[in-house]
Amino acid sequence: YTIASKVLQGLGVVRGDDGGIREADPITRAEVAALAYRIHTADVKDSKANLYYDLQDAAFDDLGSVEWAKGYIGYAHNAEIVKGVGGKKFNPTSNITGYEVLAMALRAIGYGKNHEFEGAQWQINTAAWGRREGLLEGISALDQTRLDQPATRGMVFQILLNAVLHNDVQFSYVQPDLYVGADRSMADGLH
Q1: Is the predicted pLDDT of residue 56 greater than 80, yes or no?
Q2: DSSP string, 135-190
Q3: pTM for this structure?
Q4: Out of 63-77, 125-139, 171-185, which region has the weakest mean confidence (pLDDT)?
Q5: Angstrom distance (rounded) from CA 81 to CA 158
Q6: What are phi and psi of 152, to 5 degrees?
Q7: What torsion do the CA atoms of 148, 19, 158, 27 make, to the nearest 10 degrees?
Q8: C-alpha closest to that of 170 among 160, 159, 185
Q9: pLDDT higher than threshold 80 for residue 55
Q10: Contact yes or no for 132/182 (Cβ under 8 A)
Q11: Which residue in 77, 79, 147, 177 has the fewest CB atoms around it within 10 Å?
Q12: Are strands 179-185 and 167-171 parallel, antiparallel or unpaired?
């Protein structure tokens, strides 16, 4: 996952922390919300993240320990990229699973408007759509069998890079599969 890591670092999306990038370590839900914000808005300097600080207040009541992430989570929730875990909880410091990252990436592209990644079959649907849309390209066979486990930072970087390069879609009631492709991707905003 080193190439995906380096590309996202070069774009300013991934910065690491005091411990560096740590591609083999797990990543939290709040950290992935920050990455999703940067990718989806192309605001890699985080200059507008504070504008979304209060948006999360109505949705989640467990973000006190991650003040730094409230703007990212607020934006990502408002843009319907992230969902909570029920009961007004987001679990920001919990490790994110591969399924959860795939669902976020698919929603960032534009899918999920028909609630494909919710309900009892959400994991199966997420994996199937992720595979179909190429978001699992470059993900090791072993990691693909462990999507229900905490995802490593490197795996997240690969899935997010795949999403960045994927053309966006828009929901359409007149299309047989409900989505129509766009001639742009999230990469268009990132330079």
Answers
A1: no
A2: TTTT--HHHHTTTTSBPBHHHHHHHHHHHHHSEEEEE-TTSTTSEEEEEEEGGGT-
A3: 0.94
A4: 171-185
A5: 17
A6: -80, 160
A7: 20
A8: 185
A9: no
A10: no
A11: 177
A12: antiparallel
- Please say whether the beta carbons of 15 and 72 come within 8 A: no
- Condensed to tens digits (0 to 9), the pLDDT of residues 128-172 reads 999 999 999 999 999 999 999 999 999 999 999 999 999 999 998
The band of 105, judged by pLDDT with boundaries at 50, 70 and 90, is very high
Q: Is 22 exposed, middle or buried (0-12, 13-18, 19+ CB in 10 A)?
A: middle
Structure-block tokens of residue 51: 């504008």
Q: Locate all alpha helices (DSSP H) within the chain, ordered by sequence.
A: 2-10, 29-41, 70-78, 98-109, 122-132, 141-144, 153-165
Of the pLDDT bands very low, low, confident and very high (cuts 50, 70, 90), residue 190 is: confident
Residue 174: which pLDDT band, with cuts at 50, 70 and 90? confident
Spatial distance between the Cα atoms of 4 and 103, rounded to a whole number of angstroms: 19
Picking from 154, 34, 37, the residue whose alpha carbon sits closest to that of residue 92 is 34
Q: 89: which strand partners?
A: 86
The SS3 call for residue 54 is helix
Q: How far, in Å, CA of 181 to CA of 189, rounded?
A: 17
- Distance, in Å, from the CA atom of 114 to the CA atom of 30, rounded to the nearest integer, reads 25
